[in-house]
Amino acid sequence: MALDEAIQWLQHPEHQVAVFDATNTTPRRRQIIRDTVNNSKRKLNLIFMESICTNQKILESNYLTKVRNSPDFKGMDEKDALEDLKNRIARYQLVYRTVGDDEGSCYIKIQDLADKVTVKGIYGSIALRIVNLLMCCHNGNRPIILLRAAAAEIKEIEHTRKTALKTWTALDDSMDYIGDYMLGGEDDLAAGFGALGPYAESPSDEKSFREITRSTGTTPTIEEEQQTALPPLSIEEICRTRRLSETVRSSSREANVLPRSRRGSSSTASMRVLLRQNLRVPTITHSTSYSKVTKDGREFIKRLKAYTKTQDWAKKDSAAVFTSTLPRAIETATAFLDPNDSETQTQQWSALNVLDTGICHGMQVEGIKKELPEEYEKWQRDKFRYRFPGGESYMDLCHRLSTLVLELERTKRPVVVVSHLSTLQALYSYFRAIPVRKIPSVKIKSHTMVILSPHQYGWKEKRIEI
């Protein structure tokens, strides 16, 4: 029985939600389900979800969609199929009883495509997230387009600066001198392991550097007199800096016996000098400076703009364009913007920024295998759950994308997402129902539009190379 299989599946500690899809239109059948769930070895929470539709226009539209796409009606005349479907529904209506409070069940009732939502006994993060998702779903037919941002130019000085700043994240986050330098970042090409070795889609994915950006849109730049190419830090230098940080932490703990107001800034400035000497990092100032898209990237944006103008989905409705906060993603998104169309929406989401690979940022797989063998082995064992030192895992990435997923589900106009390999891997896997553990190996090529369109049994896709 499907219900027994669902309960058995939930006995695994990592399995959290199972959906038992059946009519369950009578109180008696729902009681059987409650009794079966209550007898489970593992304590399980049961929620009934009921969809109610009283809008005749919506009903007729759903009937047509059903008979045109369901294998039950394949080969039948449309008129005969509609009559057969309505007869089936009429038989269910004879015994149908809505879920009532007297049954003692938790439930979610969605009426007329979330025009009205009623809940009872809904507690906990998972149950509330289910409610949020159901309230965002609709039966619109808009496409969702996934696209990797154009590649940016590489500068060796940015690699050095990135490595140094990433090393600082390994220090005590509470230390005052860190605050001026930990500014968040941009990955100019792709994300750590996720875009290297077996996952690389183009030569540009074999390198990965970080542009240091503030949320205000300003980017730290090296003072002109110090714009000299510096060699990247070795693992030994990073380890030496970490040993230095232990001394710093010890001094900091001793200093913390004084009130913060009495600590002054002289020690902070001295520590900055000490760190800079050990890391060989030039002084950083703040000014507006965006990384430039490569010549090939600019040509891609031109082709993309020309192609978009020919598409029906772009002509009929103004698209909602979502990008990461990285400059090259924002520049790529200009291909979808019409200066004469004030309805086109553009939103920048930090959730769409590239996977943070921590101290491994910018390293190639072979380098990590050689210099960080223990981390390499952990990554090989579980590429989805593995969290990069000082960074995040693909699972962390999926969590930060959850709010964006609700926005994508809610939006009724065409949606364009311009982002990066790791985030697009996660979004694509969500819509295509790909198991989460396979997310790191999903292939999404550069200069390729992935067009997802909803249909009765999920999402179908079309890939267009630009």
Automatic annotation (TrEMBL):
One of its GO terms (cellular component) is cytosol. GO terms for molecular function: 6-phosphofructo-2-kinase activity; ATP binding; fructose-2,6-bisphosphate 2-phosphatase activity. Residues 250-269 are annotated as: Disordered. Residues 2-138 form the 6-phosphofructo-2-kinase domain. It comes from the Eukaryota. Pfam families: 6PF2K (PF01591), His_Phos_1 (PF00300). One of its GO terms (biological process) is fructose metabolic process. Keywords: ATP-binding, Nucleotide-binding. The keyword Lipid biosynthesis does not apply. This is 6-phosphofructo-2-kinase domain-containing protein.
